[in-house]
Each structure stands twice: as C-alpha cells, then as structure tokens.
C-alpha cells in the first residue's frame, strides 16, 4: 500500500491524502488550498492522479479546506462515491453550494472591475457543478465499517466540528489512522474527541504544533469587549467560520445576555450559510454538549440576516451592535463590507477568533497591517483589534499528545501534516521528546510505502 501527500503539507489547507493498493485508490479528504497565492494556484493545476482513477473519497469533515475541491474533482472525471458522516453530508451541502456561488461571484466581480490577470476570469467551479458533486455523497454512521475495494474504513468522533471524524483505514493487514482536524477536550460546545485507534501508521495534524492555547476565560473576554464597545456606541465585528465558531460565539453571547453581563444590543448573524448550519447544529444534539433549551435560546436570541440588502442595512446602521459574519479569516464573505463600513472607526472592535492562515487578511491584521485591501481598494483599519485564542476548534500540540498518550502501542511510523512548516516541525520534535516516536514531516507530492 502507498500513501501520497497531495495537500496539507507545509500548510493547513488543501487536505488530500491518497491511499493506493494495486489498482485501487482511496482519497482521504479533497480540500481547497487557501491563503497565499502560490497555494491557491494549486487549485487550478491538474489533480496529481487522473480523478477518474480514484475509487472513492472519504471525507473527515465538511470544512472547505477538506471538501472544497470535490466539485472540481467531479468535473475532471471522478465518478465514485464520496463518503462522510450524516452531519458532514448536510454541512457539505451548505458549504459546497455556497463555495460554488462564491467562485462564480468572485469571477464575475473580477471581470467587472478588471482586477484579474485572467481574461475573462473563470470560476474554479460553478454552483451547478457543486450541486452535481453532492449527488455522489453517501452518508456513513460513526463506528460502522464500510468497504471500498480492499480498504475497510471506519469513522471515529474527532470533536472538531459537527460531523467531524478521525478515519481508520485497514488494508492488507495494516491499519492507517488519520486524525483529521482534531477537536479539544475542553471545547464549550463540542464533545471531546474519542481516543485514537491502535494503528501502524498515524497521520496527525499540527495546526497548533508550536503553540498552546491560553487558559483564558473566553466568555468573560467577549463580555468585556461587548460592554466596552457598546458603551462607546460602537459595533463589535466577529468574523467567524459559518460552521463551528459561529455557533460557539452565539452560544456564549446568549449566555452573557441571559446573565445580564452584556447590554441588550442586537446580535446579527449575517450569513445565510451560518443560519442554515445553526439549524443543522440544533438537529444533531448527540454530537455536542448543548441541551434543547440552550439550542432554542441560541436561535431566539439572534437576528438572522439573509439577504444582501438586509446586510447592507446592518452596515448602514450606526447603533451599537454585534455582527457575526463570515469568513473567519477575512478571505471573503459579508464581514468584508462591514469592515469597510466600520473598520476605520475607533469605536469598533474587530475580534479575530482562531487560526489565521498565512496570506489571509486576518493573518495580515494580526501582523500589524493598518490597511486592508477590500474589493480592490485599500481601507484603513483604525479600530480596536482583539485576538481570542481560546475558541480554537483544534487541539494544541500538548492536547494532541495527551490524546495520543492513550495508545498502548506506538505506531510504526508517524506523519505530521496540516501545519505550517515551523508548527509541523515543532510537533515532530514534540512527539519524539514525549514518546520517542520518529515522526516525519512529508512534503508536497511525497509518496511513501506502507509495508
Ligand atoms: Zn476543519
């Protein structure tokens, strides 16, 4: 059996791992590359193997950096099933449709304003192509093994977002275990990850391979930011991923308001996608910690903003308020026009939550940028900038170490992926120091024999 690394190496995006055995090929995750330009350009290159030769795709979870290339893979000839957990199936439907729509919109906008080097600019895939890929999805429950040719596959709870799984693949007497994106045991909303499975080969993520999450009281910090901003008559901007972070923020804001720790300013969820995701979230109660009453309170305490016109009205409204909108790393979405409207005001608070990949606007702000390029023009950023690190949906390296410490036997080989170079290397050294394991950090295109 061979394992090829076609993404999430040297970066946190573009997760794609190919397992090959004889004529059979199984692709674990099929993500979009995001962030710096030379990574994004990989989305436009031919897939490293002919998509028509892949038997099946197994998704760990629905985030686009794990699923967002699927419509393109299908367009290029992939005809097999796309396996994922039931909640991931529902989330992927929302995310991929939105992604197709955004790809079309971006191409259209680039053509209108003439800021693309490609003439005419083309979308990576369309909404229709995203919908076509959804027809190949097949939901598989956690813990129930299913077979793809010689591969036997099983999902374990990863606790990262709704539906997120670690994947165990058994083939030719070997066990290959993918951590996927691993959640945290202390998440305010998600349940902790299940213990890892015994395995011969381990592929482990390293988003926070060189960092520890601070033990801060996130709820109290959000409370203070909302109180102080509202007192100045300002707006709190909370860029958030539609899946996961948005629901966590709404839950914390709901609790703060119930405890009267923040004033009764309106909280807008300005993302049709996050609204749909919140509804899915409330239907999969067994995957998270919130009770039915908490889910209801979360939905009732927030004002949903669905249309573009409503969103523009929120931007024009100068009263104190909280806006939760995507995208989390400021790579697109409605948060951009709110930043354009409020980012130059000193009374505004812009709260970055979670990991910001290199090359994104979020990353630039955290590294001192005082202007952002929005819709082709530079906008000054004079507002209060806050970073909330405690809301990460990824375990840090020590938490991953604690999770792996439950393994009775060391894996024969360990591959550290899904991290920027420094983080992945630190994770590699950490696993060696803590367990004596000889881990490796693969490079893009590496192929290893699993013998
Ligand atoms: Zn993820």
Would you give an account of this structure?
With 451 residues, the protein is an alpha/beta fold. It has 2 domains: 2-211 and 393-449, Metallo-beta-lactamase, Chain A (4-Layer Sandwich), CATH 3.60.15; 218-388, 3-Layer(aba) Sandwich (Rossmann fold), CATH 3.40.50. Helices cover 32% and strands 21% of the residues. It is built from 14 helices and 22 strands. The protein has helices spanning 37-40, 64-67, 70-75, 86-113, 127-134, 218-231, 245-258, 272-283, 292-300, 308-316, 335-342, 361-366, 397-404, 421-435; strands at 2-5, 17-21, 24-28, 56-58, 82-84, 137-139, 146-148, 151-157, 165-171, 174-178, 201-205, 235-239, 267-269, 303-304, 321-325, 349-353, 371-374, 377-380, 384-388, 413-417, 439-440, 447-449. It has a 7-stranded mixed beta sheet. It has a 7-stranded mixed beta sheet with strand order 7-8-9-10-11-20-21, covered by helices on one side. A 6-stranded parallel beta sheet has the order 14-13-15-12-16-19, sandwiched between helices. Strand 17 and strand 18 (377-380) form a beta hairpin. Helix 4 (86-113) packs antiparallel against helix 5, helix 4 runs antiparallel to helix 8 (272-283) and helix 7 packs across helix 9. The longest helix is centred in the N-terminal third of the chain and has 28 residues, at 86-113. The N and C termini lie close together (7 Å). The protein binds zinc ion. Zinc ion is lined by residues 61, 63, 160, 181.
């Amino acid at each position: 059996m061979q394992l090829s690394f076609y993404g999430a190496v040297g970066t946190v995006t573009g997760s794609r791992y190919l397992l090959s055995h004889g004529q059979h090929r199984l692709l674990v995750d099929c993500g979009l590359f995001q962030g710096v330009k030379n990574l994004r350009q990989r989305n436009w290159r031919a897939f490293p193997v002919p998509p028509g030769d892949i038997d099946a795709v197994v998704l760990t979870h629905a985030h686009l950096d794990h699923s967002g290339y699927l419509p393109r893979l299908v367009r290029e000839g992939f005809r097999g099933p796309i396996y994922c957990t039931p909640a991931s199936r529902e989330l992927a439907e929302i995310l991929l449709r939105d992604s197709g729509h955004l790809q079309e919109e971006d191409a259209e906008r680039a053509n209108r304003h003439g800021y693309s080097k490609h003439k005419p600019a083309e979308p990576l895939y369309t909404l229709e192509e995203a919908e076509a890929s959804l027809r190949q999805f097949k939901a598989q429950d956690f813990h129930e093994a299913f077979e793809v040719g010689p591969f036997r596959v099983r999902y374990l709870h990863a606790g990262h977002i709704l539906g997120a799984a670690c994947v165990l693949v058994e083939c030719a007497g070997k066990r290959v275990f993918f951590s996927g994106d691993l959640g945290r045991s202390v998440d305010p909303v998600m349940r902790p990850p299940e213990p890892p499975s015994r395995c011969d080969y381990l592929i482990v993520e390293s988003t926070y391979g060189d960092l520890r999450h601070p033990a801060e009281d996130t709820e109290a910090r959000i409370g203070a930011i909302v109180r102080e901003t509202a007192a100045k008559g300002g707006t709190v901007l909370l860029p958030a991923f539609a899946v996961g972070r948005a629901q966590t923020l709404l839950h914390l804001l709901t609790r703060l308001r119930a405890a009267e720790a923040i004033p009764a300013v309106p909280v807008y969820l300005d993302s049709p996608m996050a609204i749909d995701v919140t509804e899915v979230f409330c239907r999969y109660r067994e995957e998270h910690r919130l009770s039915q009453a908490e889910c209801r309170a979360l939905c009732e305490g927030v004002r949903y903003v669905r249309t573009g016109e409503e969103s523009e009205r929120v931007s024009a409204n100068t009263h104190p308020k909280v806006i939760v909108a995507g995208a989390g790393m400021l790579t697109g979405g409605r948060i951009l026009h709110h930043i354009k409207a409020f980012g130059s005001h000193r009374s505004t608070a812009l709260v970055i939550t979670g990991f910001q990949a290199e090359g994104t606007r979020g990353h630039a702000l955290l590294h001192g940028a005082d202007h952002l390029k929005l819709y082709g023009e530079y906008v000054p950023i004079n507002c209060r900038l806050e970073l909330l690190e405690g809301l990460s949906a990824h375990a840090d390296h020590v938490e991953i170490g604690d999770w792996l410490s439950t393994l009775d036997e060391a894996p024969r080989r360990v591959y550290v992926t899904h991290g920027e170079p420094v983080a992945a290397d630190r994770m590699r050294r950490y696993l060696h120091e803590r367990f004596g394991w000889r881990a490796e950090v693969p490079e893009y295109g590496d192929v290893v024999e699993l013998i």
